[in-house]
Every structure is written in structure tokens, then in C-alpha cells.
Write a structure and sequence with these properties.
heterodimer, A: 264 residues, elongated, B: 299 residues, mainly alpha
Chain lengths: 264, 299
């Protein structure tokens, strides 16, 4: 097997984020909310990544952020996959007016860029981290529904589905026993690509301050507060920004690999 | 025609998302203690929120067609006026960003396809990939930091690289360039392997002309339609860019209106974005028609 360095690095980074998020209290013995030293202490011996404007340890906050960010994006992706997948499945298995209506609504929703659609939901529900997760989940759903429908339609045209129909299988039987199981691997690779988008989306919304409480150790919010000290303390913005970017890059490169192995 | 239907549906969506999901938009004023129950009641009446939803919707549509987007809950100023004030700043940024995105996208795409087997080509492909992956918030911060350091060593750069427009546009353009570069590269890859390229080579036409005229031209229509889509997504990008660079504009207006719970403004900005998206779709179709003679022959 050919060695794939980017994929190995990506998997390594994601694994590290997972381990760090589980063992957060062991890795760092300070609290992400309590000041530990002078404000804006540069990175050094005592504080690996320095402290922020309130004297809180940046490393500790990043470590606890590893519990929030991936989890939030995972939840948002789950919402998108459930809603989008369900409507895609319905549209693909019941063709005709229902299919056309669902796709028309999805296309109309796609006229609003996903991020703005999510912001519209935040406007409706009020700022906060749960809202951000829901909003990104809903915001990605129309695009996901459209792609999922195409996948289900491809499965629908296969011989065994025709055979099942000839044997008298109903629409819901075909949908649940043939379309869903056989589209699984493709849906998984689609969901992986979507996770990268959801991660970017949630951190963007929290960066814009839409998570409400700025004290939560969340990477997007940390990047935003770091912006105010770009000159005197660039590490405040650099480290969370790096963490966000590395995670997105890692997920994308793994997703691309997954899609490649799919087509081969 | 279909564009109009889509625009109508998207604008209606902004109305129903806020009314149905949020329920009563004025209630939040009450819970925040910003207004007394009597004030809320009279505000509700003056906004027409006591009417049935369908009537409200029809009134909203009628107002929208006349360019009346309601009034802000906080300043009582017409939303259309507030938006019109911020619009020029965002349009300037988005247009500058689009120009740079096209420039980078074409440059990276052509380099990646032309120098496919050399370091420069691989670097261009890598950069295009990075451009789509990196969040605008982070590239913006990196841009600001680099700008600081460059300014320390070469103070004169500050004159050219104006912080107010050039840097935000650069960051915005870079983020959109990746997708354009990918489409250009894929198109070139395909056309460079077609028989007419061999024919052109046999006629003794130079490599540069072959690449830029014979190969690039058929690769342009898909790139143009994508660029039009990118233009619409650029609008979403301006929201972040404006925040990073503390630049005034529609994006900042949207964020602050959401944080304040000023729903008519949020609704107006998103509806405008939807209209903009539909319009850029139509423009993309027209442009593709103008560039690609094959489409003209078909109709």
C-alpha cells in the first residue's frame, strides 16, 4: 500500500483532538474560566500558549474548546443528515409532484447562501450556542437533501430495486430495505464533506459573536476576542485560528480520500 | 421567469422563518425589560403584528415590491434607508473581492494546468485547495498580521495596500479563488487533450497562444457561471471580512441586528442577498451565452 502522508497527518490531528477533548482535565489542571496569571503573558515556560486579556490560560481554553467545537459541528451535521437525508429519500422514492415540490423548496432555500440562511435562523431564535448548532444544521439541509436525492436516485435505477418492485415491494419497503442500506457508504462520504462545512459554519457564527456568551472556551469566539489584541498579543488569535484551520483541512483531506476510495 | 419564482420563494422564506420560528418578535423586547406591556402592545399594533399571519404576509410582499422593508425596532428608521446607507461599502468590497478572485482563480488554475508536472503547478493546486479550506476569519487575521510586519519594514507599502479596501478584498478574493481555480484547471485539463489542440500545434501555433486562446476559451463558460455563484457567496464572505477588518457594511449591520433582535433589518438584508443571488444566476446564464458560441447556435 502506498503511504499517504497527508491522510496520516490528518487522521493524527483528529485523533489528537479527540484524545485531548476526553482527557482535558488531566492535560491541564487550571480552569478555562479562571485567571491564572497576568493578562497577556506571552507564550513561555509556564504558560505554553500564553494567557488572554483576562489572564486565562490559552492552552487550557483551547483544550476545553476541543470538547465544544467538534461536538457542536457533529451535532449540526447530524441534524443536516437527518433532515436532508429524509427529504432526499422521500423525494427519490416518491417521484412526481411531491418530488418536484420538495426540490423546488430546496432550490428556493439554496438561493440564500447556507451561512446567511443559518444567520436567519439565529435571528429568529436569538443568539446562543444551541441556536448556532441548530441553525447550521438547518442551513445545510437543503443542499444535502438535493445531493442525497441524486444518490438515492442512482441506487433506485439498479437491477435489484427493479427486481424488488417486480416482486411487489412497496415504496416504503424499497426506501428502507434497498435505497437506504445501499446508499450508506456514499452518504457517509457526503456527510464527511459536510462536516467540514458545518465546522467552518459553526466557528464562523461563533466568530461573529452569535454564540452570545464570549467567555465560553470555543475556538471561533476565542479567535474573535483575539482580534482585539492582534498587535500586542498575536498568539490569542493565531492558536485558535490554527486549530480551526487544521481541523477543517484534516476533515477535508480525509473526506477526499474517502470519496476516492469510493470511486475506485 | 423561474428566477422570479425562486426569488419570491426565497423572500417568502425570510418572512416565514422569522415569524414562524421566532413566534412573536416583539416579545423579546418585553422579556429583555426594554419595554412595558402597554408599549409592546402599541408597537405590535403599529407593526401590524396583531393581524392574521396571511394578511401580514401579503402586507410584507406588497411593501417589499415597493421597496418598503418596514422599520427598525430600535431606531424606528426605515429599513430600506438603513440598508441603502451600508450598501455602497459592501458592494465596493464585494466587487473588488470578485475581481481579485477572478485574477487569482484564473492565475492559479492556468498555472496548475500548464505546469502540471512541475513544482509551480503543484504549488498552485495546493494553494487553490488551501484557499477553499481556510476560513475567512483566519486568513483575515493572518493578513492583518502580515500587513503589520510588512509595514514595519516597508512603511511605504501602507500607501498602496490600503487597509480599508485592498486588504479585505485580498482576503475575500483569495477565499473565492480556490473554487474558480479548480474549475479552470479541470476545463483546461480536458481541452488540452482534445484533437484541436494537436491540430493547432501542427499548424505551428506557439504554446502560449495555444494555451490562452485555444484551450482556455472552451474552459471559460463553466468558470463564468461558477464565478457568478461565487459572487453571491462572496456576499456571505463579506459578513466575516467586515467583522475581521472592522469595516462598515451590510454584514456588520446583519450581525448587529441579529444580536439586538432587530428582525426587520435582518430580514431585509437576507432578502436582498437572495435577490442578489437570483440576479447573478441570470447574469451568469447571459454571460455563458455570450462567451460560448455553441449555446447560441443551439437556440
Amino acid at each position: 500500500m502506498r503511504r499517504d502522508v497527508p491522510a496520516l497527518l490528518s487522521a493524527g490531528w483528529l485523533l489528537a483532538v479527540c484524545i485531548v477533548s476526553i482527557t482535558a482535565p488531566m492535560i491541564s489542571n487550571s480552569s478555562p474560566y479562571q485567571p491564572v496569571a497576568e493578562p497577556l503573558t506571552p507564550p513561555g515556560q509556564h504558560f505554553m500558549l500564553g494567557t488572554d486579556a483576562l489572564g486565562r490560560d490559552v492552552w487550557t481554553r483551547l483544550v476545553y474548546g476541543a470538547r465544544i467545537n467538534p461536538g457542536a459541528s457533529l451535532l449540526a451535521t447530524a441534524i443536516t443528515v437527518t433532515i436532508g437525508g429524509l427529504f432526499g429519500l422521500i423525494a427519490a422514492s416518491i417521484s412526481g409532484w411531491l418530488d418536484r415540490t420538495i426540490m423546488w423548496i430546496a432550490n428556493a432555500m439554496l438561493a440564500i447562501p447556507g451561512l446567511l440562511l443559518a444567520m436567519l435562523f439565529v435571528a429568529a431564535m436569538g443568539p446562543g450556542l444551541p441556536t448556532v448548532i441548530l441553525a447550521i444544521g438547518f442551513g445545510g439541509a437543503p443542499g444535502f437533501a438535493r445531493l442525497a436525492r441524486t444518490i438515492f436516485q442512482q441506487v433506485r435505477e439498479r437491477g435489484y430495486v427493479t427486481a424488488a418492485k417486480a416482486l411487489g415491494a412497496g415504496r416504503s419497503w424499497v426506501a428502507l430495505h434497498h435505497l437506504l442500506p445501499n446508499a450508506q457508504s456514499q452518504l457517509l462520504s457526503l456527510a464527511t464533506t459536510h462536516f467540514a462545512w458545518a465546522f467552518m459554519g459553526t466557528t464562523t457564527l461563533t466568530f461573529l459573536g452569535l454564540a452570545g456568551d464570549p467567555s465560553i472556551p470555543e475556538w471561533g469566539a476565542m479567535l474573535n476576542t483575539g482580534r482585539a489584541h492582534l498587535i500586542d498579543a498575536p498568539w490569542l488569535a493565531l492558536f485558535p485560528g490554527l486549530a480551526i484551520s487544521l481541523t477543517i483541512l484534516a476533515v477535508q483531506s480525509l473526506g477526499a480520500r474517502l470519496a476516492n476510495s469510493e470511486s475506485n | 421567469m423561474e428566477g422570479l419564482l425562486t426569488a419570491w420563494a426565497a423572500v417568502s422564506l425570510t418572512f416565514f422563518a422569522l415569524r414562524v420560528v421566532a413566534g412573536d418578535p416583539v416579545a423579546s423586547l418585553l422579556s429583555q425589560g426594554l419595554a412595558s406591556p402597554e408599549q409592546v402592545e402599541s408597537l405590535r399594533r403599529s407593526l401590524g403584528l396583531d393581524a392574521p399571519l396571511l394578511i401580514q404576509y401579503l402586507q410584507f410582499l406588497r411593501g417589499f415590491l415597493r421597496g418598503d422593508l418596514g422599520t427598525s425596532l430600535y431606531t424606528s428608521r426605515p429599513v430600506s434607508v438603513v440598508i441603502a446607507e451600508q450598501l455602497p461599502a459592501t458592494i465596493t468590497l464585494a466587487l473588488a473581492g470578485l475581481c481579485l478572485a477572478l485574477l487569482f482563480g484564473l492565475g492559479l488554475g492556468v498555472t496548475a494546468a500548464w505546469k502540471e508536472h512541475s513544482a509551480a503547478g503543484r504549488l498552485a493546486a495546493r494553494l487553490a485547495g488551501l484557499a477553499t479550506a481556510l476560513p475567512v476569519a483566519f486568513t483575515g487575521v493572518i493578513g492583518l498580521l502580515l500587513y503589520r510586519y510588512i509595514l514595519q519594514w516597508f512603511p511605504s507599502v501602507g500607501f498602496i495596500a490600503s487597509r480599508r479596501l485592498f486588504l479585505p478584498a485580498l482576503v475575500l478574493g483569495f477565499s473565492s479563488a480556490g473554487a474558480i481555480a479548480r474549475v479552470v484547471q479541470a476545463g483546461l485539463f480536458e481541452s488540452m487533450r482534445s484533437p484541436y489542440m494537436l491540430a493547432a500545434r501542427a499548424r505551428g501555433i506557439g504554446r502560449g497562444v495555444r494555451l490562452l486562446w485555444h484551450a482556455l476559451r472552451p474552459a471559460l463558460p463553466p468558470a463564468t457561471s461558477l464565478s457568478a455563484l461565487e459572487a453571491a457567496y462572496l456576499f456571505a464572505g463579506t459578513v466575516v471580512t467586515e467583522t475581521v477588518f472592522s469595516r462598515p457594511g451590510l454584514g456588520r449591520l446583519l450581525v448587529s441586528s441579529i444580536l439586538q433582535g432587530d428582525y426587520p433589518i435582518a430580514q431585509g438584508v437576507v432578502a436582498l442577498a437572495a435577490l442578489f443571488y437570483t440576479a447573478s444566476h441570470i447574469i451568469a446564464d447571459i454571460l455563458a451565452f455570450l462567451i460560448d458560441p455553441r449555446l447560441r447556435k443551439a437556440t
